From TrEMBL, chain A:
GO cellular component: cytosol
Organism the protein comes from: Streptomyces olivochromogenes
One GO-annotated biological process of the protein: phenylacetate catabolic process
Protein name: Phenylacetate-CoA oxygenase subunit PaaI
Gene3D superfamilies cross-referenced by the UniProt entry: 1.20.1260.10
From TrEMBL, chain B:
Ranges for domain MIP18 family-like: 16-72
InterPro entries assigned: Fe-S_Maturation_MIP18, FSCA_dom_sf, MIP18-like, PaaD-like, Zn_ribbon_PaaD
Name this protein carries in UniProt: Phenylacetate-CoA oxygenase subunit PaaJ
Organism: Streptomyces olivochromogenes
Organism superkingdom: Bacteria
All residue ranges annotated as the PaaD zinc beta ribbon domain in the record: 125-170
Gene3D superfamilies cross-referenced by the UniProt entry: Fe-S cluster assembly (FSCA)
Amino acid sequence: MSDDHVYLTLAEGHEDDTRWAYGTGFEDPLHGVDTTVPDGLDAAELAASCVALADDALVSAQRLAEWTTRAPELEEEVALANIGLDLLGQARLLYARAGQVDGTGRDEDAYAYFRDADDFRNVRLAELPNGDFAFSVVRLLALSSWRLAHFERLAAHPDPVLSAIAAKGVKELTYHRQYAAEWAVRLGDGTAESHRRMRTALERVAPYLGELFTAYDVRDEVVAVLRQVTEAGGLPMPVYRPLPGCGRAGEHTEHLTPLLAELQSVARAHPEATW
Amino acid sequence: MVSVLTDVRRARHIAEQVPDPELPMLTLADLGVLREVSLAPDGTVVASLTPTYSGCPAMAEMRADVAARLAAAGYERVEIRTVLDPPWTSDWITPAGRRKLTEHGIAPPGAAPRHPAGPVPLVLTTTRRAAVPCPRCGSADTEETSRFAATSCKALWRCRACLEPFEYVKEI
Ligand SMILES: [Zn+2]
């Protein structure tokens, strides 16, 4: 490792493949963390919260990764991939925590690669296809605003591991929300075409907003952020109506199964393989 | 016979010198990710590391590097712990680390934003951030071209004076 050129260092042969962000067979992301569950915590509830938050992050990361080679500019491609990588990191930590507390001892791969769509607890907004850049911006704005508000509260959670994951996530999500908010304003306040696309995107996202507010009470804060951004971009505030079904209960759109099929294909074809 | 105190100092020194996999001009100590090196009563060297970002793919490599270097230095029992709390902040990059970043054409971070407890405010003004001085020519006439770059911890900037693009370690 004395080579001072990072790309040469990356190209060297290594016995362990622990350096890559995508793949399987990683070392436990909570390696060496004190993983005791405090007395008096409902383990099943804690595990369920971790899985739902991890599923939101994993599914979002997969959609964000799909922008690679397709974003309007290289800078946006890099930005969306970085946001996805942060979320993937959060998902790994949350799955690892879930496996410790739910008594199954499952690792992150078991959650990510070997569950079917109806076992996933992500909100449906995360799994919808990317659509155009405006739709992805509005979705990211909604999801990151909600997740930031929720994580900010979870930082005071009695489980020290979840609380630490959330406190770290707050810093990352602040950047994600900022990115989405600035693009939302820029597109809303841009050309007639970008404004029209933003209105369409807001209408498409609106029905799915209610689902974000079912489990955790950060609605007012998220609504305030959406109002701030839409006003700055000269856009109408989305009006949401309840939509039948709930991703948090495992009821998903037809889009999740193909997303998972792609995500899980290699792990399922070669269950013992690591890459 | 080496005293325990000297020995833990030596172990700390070895761990401190391990280079960061993504910013190899910095040691783990410069980056502020090596939180503690101590000696357990049974003689195990315990090194504590904290990740910069949740998705940092270099974390496992850092753990492996520290363990390998300590083992090579003759420490038979080594344990690497991950510390998640408090979360890493760019404020922990040492003055030496900041100097090395600048020498390598990377602008070091300013002070990390501090929010009181409660909702994180969203600020939408375009003149929100102070200019980052160009690490090559020192000019303050610079602009952000992308808040995200080749790794999570960096943004892309451009200098309007010398026209060079440069990377900038983000405040977090
Ligand atoms: Zn310059």
